[in-house]
Amino acid sequence: MASVLSRVVAARSLNTFGRAVINATVLWELYERTGSKLVLAGVGLVQVLPVILLFVPAGTLVDRSDRRLLATAAVAVTGAVGVGLAISSWTAAPVAAFYVLLALQGCMNVVHAPASGSLIPMLIERRELTRANQIGSSLQELSAIVGPALAGLALTWIAPSAIYAFVGLTAITSAVLYRSLPAVRTPDDPQAAATRRDWRVGLRFIWRSPLLLPALTLDMFAVLFAGVTALLPAIATDVLHTDAFGYGILRASQGVGAVLMALIGARIAPWQRPGRVLLVVVALFGAGTIGVGLSRSLPLTVVLLVICGALDNISVVIRLTLEQLVVPDRIRGRVSAVHYVFIGMSNELGAAESGLAADLFGTVPAIVGGGALAIVVVGVVAVKWRALATMPPLADLKPDDG
Q1: Residue 228, C-beta contacts closer than 8 angstroms, at least 6 positions apart
Q2: Which domain range does residue 98 map to?
Q3: Residue in 225, 257, 256 with CA at minimum distance from that of residue 345
Q4: What's the rounded Cα separation, in Å, for the pair 362 and 369?
Q5: Are 147 and 21 within 8 A, CB to CB?
Q6: pLDDT digits (tens, 9 = 90+) for 175-200
Q7: Could you give the CA distance from residue 99 to residue 92 in angstroms, rounded to a whole number?
Q8: I need a labelling partner for 270 at 20 to 30 A (CA). Which of 96, 101, 136, 379 fits?
Q9: d(CA 194, CA 373)
Q10: What is the CATH number of the domain that holds 167?
Q11: Distances 325 to 97, 153, 321, 372, 395 between C-alpha atoms, Å
Q12: For the chain, what is the radius of gyration of the CA atoms?
């Protein structure tokens, strides 16, 4: 079991690493070439469109297919995207060429996320899921640290094309790890034949859940409004007046906080009121984002980003474990696909929103306003879904067959 856990976590972490390297490098290269915040918005937009358009067939595909093979294929194509970006960068291709390749990466993400996410509860025992998510979250965040940090450092001396090409190697390794996992299949269920034909079952499950819906809503709008990742090139260049290496430090800071929190979380008792904790950490995340917008000091901004990363890690572990414990196996693929719409759309659409807001109102007002809106969302969720604050310990939750 430990070997299986290590392989699936390593495969997901390498994919995260590759995507982090691609995104950090693309954002820096395109901003350096154009100086346009709207171009940064476009990077997020072209990756969110596949999430919106493909989550329905992706979820159905995951529930009907070998999830292991789907994850393998998705990371392999991500490696091909890295090679394509290398060629585009080397030949100074138009920005549109970068957008096409990023859209393809978005298509792979919308398949990989539900395929790999729904593998975990089928390979890992229920009592080990929280621990597995803590380990997986910490290693993925470590990948999110190392990826941008290495990209920022490498951009000081190495052409972006070489950095993109390197992603192909990480993708090959990730694909081999996924392929080596044991085969699993969804348990037989009398309702399975009917539900496989109905893609809406995942959406209905989330919509009717008094716990999963508010948890996903919190995460979605917190990242949508309070995420600053897409604006880090502008923060580094225009606000903090630092270079590519400083940009790499900023990109790594939230991941550092997430890993530190994962290490701490593995040593503390499970939350007795995880829903209440979720509300508090998202509100603090919004406050931390406001601080990032107001800061004019690189060290202070780094500290604030580390704190935001720690808070985000708590939110991620609670949300992932909640989904894995309350969703029945037979519909897990479609629920995971809708879940990824919430999360993937918030990440990429948040990048588009940040770039557009910064272009219209300025970088600092966009960041401060986004953090404030995230705090408002927490208040709305707390009032509308009161059951979230009284949610019992995660280990006490059972699958809801509705």
Answers
A1: 235, 289, 292, 293, 305, 354, 367, 370
A2: 2-182+190-396
A3: 225
A4: 11
A5: yes
A6: 889 888 877 665 554 454 444 455 57
A7: 13
A8: 379
A9: 41
A10: 1.20.1250.20
A11: 41, 40, 6, 32, 8
A12: 20
